[in-house]
């Protein structure tokens, strides 16, 4: 059996008041439709057809790299018409999941269950809600689904039904090919309703299976910025709860955002106003203090990230101490027991075990050995305005405060650089190197006096 996915994404999303198509608005830092596509990839769909309308060029651009078939729905004549646009790309065997580019959070687990529930031709995702207004109602007779009636077509008795149609189905392709061409638009909205395939299938004796999602947010769509923000909060709360169940301590679960995937060891503590972006991994006993933003990085066991650090594309060893106010930029590789202090910036830099840069420094394009001490205010001058060059510092070196290391340059093992030096040539192992003018005292000098 092949499994296909059809994603409806032709809606403009007028209420977003945006130049971007709705499905490209972001939730947890990722376009809505990419949440859906990533879930489709996770369940192993054999093909995906995306139905687009407004902003097709932008949608295609944003989804370059995904293996999808784009099919244009030129006029929005209803959900039934939208799925019909996918038919030429759909085999006549196998099953299709029908999903929506603006319903981002249906889980892999729910979709797998939905596929498994389709044993007779159609399965659908329904839910009992307190306020069903505006949604399609599930009409049952002797427990069996016999139809879906839209709000605008419903009788008062039907409007009282609380079981609603999520709009998400798994349908045999043979049935889609059979019923979609038969849809008509003689209803209150003059639309081709996809929901009418249920009626047609029931008339053919097909039993409709239904399942419900584990979480309500799985079927929630996004039409405006308020719904988007609400769904974001639901999603964040869900992710944090999952991590709490796994043993992570959050000072305040409402003040942490995860925009990607956060993996944590045991006894991790995460303080308030922290943001995790992309793939972040924290070892056992890691402590992340307030205000820190970590992107695509790995942090080793028992490392302490002090307040207000920005860490991007970095790999930090165990028992390290970073910040407060440190900026680790991509390709920063720090070994165990490294200390990076306040107002230190690193980029494309490795530090060996036990090395320290404690205050007000920039280390870029550099390779720093073990047990090195970089004094306050040391700068690697890695850029001459045209090219970047490397600075190599040997094990056990001590670089005095406020020195400038003009790259390319090598500082030897156990070398000592006198404070305030501008080093333009290699410094020898084990020796003191100074590069600054001598201190002089002028005996007969007087301070200027005010002219009258
Ligand atoms: C549809 C269902 C309704 C269900 C509801 C859940 C139908 C007839 N009704 O409502 O039973 O409770 O979803 O939200 O299917 N779209 C297109 N092309 C179109 C029309 C819609 O791509 O021509 C896309 C929209 O961009 C949106 C989705 O389909 O992502 C649903 O459209 P919307 O108008 O919100 O749903 P309804 O038809 O009102
Ligand atoms: Ca509609």
TrEMBL record:
Function, in words: Catalyzes the last two sequential reactions in the de novo biosynthetic pathway for UDP-N-acetylglucosamine (UDP-GlcNAc). The C-terminal domain catalyzes the transfer of acetyl group from acetyl coenzyme A to glucosamine-1-phosphate (GlcN-1-P) to produce N-acetylglucosamine-1-phosphate (GlcNAc-1-P), which is converted into UDP-GlcNAc by the transfer of uridine 5-monophosphate (from uridine 5-triphosphate), a reaction catalyzed by the N-terminal domain.
HAMAP family: GlmU (MF_01631)
GO biological process: cell morphogenesis; cell wall organization; lipid A biosynthetic process; peptidoglycan biosynthetic process; regulation of cell shape; UDP-N-acetylglucosamine biosynthetic process
Region (Pyrophosphorylase) residue spans: 1-225
The record's free-text note on cofactor binding: Binds 1 Mg(2+) ion per subunit.
The protein, known as: Bifunctional protein GlmU
Compartments, record wording: Cytoplasm
Pathway in which this enzyme or protein is active: Nucleotide-sugar biosynthesis; UDP-N-acetyl-alpha-D-glucosamine biosynthesis; N-acetyl-alpha-D-glucosamine 1-phosphate from alpha-D-glucosamine 6-phosphate (route II): step 2/2; Nucleotide-sugar biosynthesis; UDP-N-acetyl-alpha-D-glucosamine biosynthesis; UDP-N-acetyl-alpha-D-glucosamine from N-acetyl-alpha-D-glucosamine 1-phosphate: step 1/1; Bacterial outer membrane biogenesis; LPS lipid A biosynthesis
Top-rank EC class of the record's enzyme: transferase
Domain annotation MobA-like NTP transferase: ranges: 6-118
Binding site for Mg(2+): 102, 223
Region (N-acetyltransferase): 247-452
Annotated positions binding acetyl-CoA: 376, 382-383, 401, 419, 436
Lineage: Bacteria, Pseudomonadati, Pseudomonadota, Gammaproteobacteria, Moraxellales
Entries under InterPro entries matching the protein: Bifunctional_GlmU, GlmU-like, GlmU_C_LbH, GMPPB_C, Hexapep, MobA-like_NTP_Trfase, Nucleotide-diphossugar_trans, Trimer_LpxA-like_sf
Keywords in alphabetical order: Acyltransferase, Cell shape, Cell wall biogenesis/degradation, Cytoplasm, Magnesium, Metal-binding, Multifunctional enzyme, Nucleotidyltransferase, Peptidoglycan synthesis, Repeat, Transferase
Source species: Moraxella cuniculi DSM 21768
Gene: glmU
Gene Ontology cellular-component annotations: cytoplasm; membrane
GO MF, one annotated term: glucosamine-1-phosphate N-acetyltransferase activity
């Amino acid at each position: 059996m092949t499994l296909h996915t059809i994603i409806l994404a032709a809606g403009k999303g007028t209420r977003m008041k945006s130049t971007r198509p709705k499905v490209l608005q972001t939730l947890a830092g990722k376009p809505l439709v990419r949440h859906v596509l990533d879930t489709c990839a996770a369940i192993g769909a054999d093909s995906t057809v995306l139905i687009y309308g407004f902003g097709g060029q932008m949608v295609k651009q944003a989804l370059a790299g995904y293996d999808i078939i784009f099919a244009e729905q030129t006029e929005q004549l209803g959900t039934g018409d939208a799925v019909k646009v996918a038919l030429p790309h759909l085999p006549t065997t196998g099953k299709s999941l029908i999903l929506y580019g603006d319903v981002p959070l249906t889980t892999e687990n729910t979709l797998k269950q939905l596929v498994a529930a389709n044993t007779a031709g159609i399965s659908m995702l329904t839910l009992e809600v307190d306020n069903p207004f505006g949604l399609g109602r599930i009409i049952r007779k002797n427990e069996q689904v016999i139809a879906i009636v839209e709000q605008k077509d419903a009788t008062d008795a039907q409007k009282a039904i609380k079981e609603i149609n999520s709009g998400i189905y798994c349908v045999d392709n043979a049935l889609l090919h059979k019923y979609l061409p038969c849809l008509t638009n003689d209803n209150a909205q003059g639309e081709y309703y996809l929901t009418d395939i249920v009626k047609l299938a029931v008339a053919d004796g097909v039993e409709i299976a239904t399942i419900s999602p584990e979480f309500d947010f799985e079927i929630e769509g996004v039409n405006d910025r308020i719904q988007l923000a609400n769904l974001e909060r639901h999603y964040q709360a869900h992710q944090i709860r999952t991590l709490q169940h796994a043993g992570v301590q959050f000072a305040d679960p409402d003040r942490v955002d995860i925009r990607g995937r956060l993996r944590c060891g045991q006894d991790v503590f995460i303080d308030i106003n922290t943001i995790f972006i992309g793939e972040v991994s924290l070892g056992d006993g890691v402590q992340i203090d307030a205000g820190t933003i970590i992107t695509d990085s790995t942090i080793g066991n028992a490392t302490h990230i002090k307040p207000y650090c920005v860490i991007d594309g970095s790999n930090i060893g165990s028992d390290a101490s970073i910040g407060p106010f440190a900026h680790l930029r991509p390709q920063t590789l720090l070994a165990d027991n490294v200390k990076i202090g306040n107002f230190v910036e690193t980029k494309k830099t490795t530090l060996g075990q036990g090395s320290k840069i404690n205050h007000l420094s920039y280390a870029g394009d550099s390779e720093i050995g073990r047990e090195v001490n970089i004094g306050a205010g040391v700068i690697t001058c890695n850029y001459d305005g045209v090219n970047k060059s490397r600075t190599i510092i040997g094990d056990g070196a001590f670089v005095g405060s406020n020195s400038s290391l003009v790259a390319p340059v090598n500082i030897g093992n156990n070398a000592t650089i006198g404070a305030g030096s501008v080093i333009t040539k290699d410094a020898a192992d084990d020796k003191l190197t100074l590069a600054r003018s001598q201190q002089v005292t002028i005996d007969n000098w007087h301070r200027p006096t005010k002219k009258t």
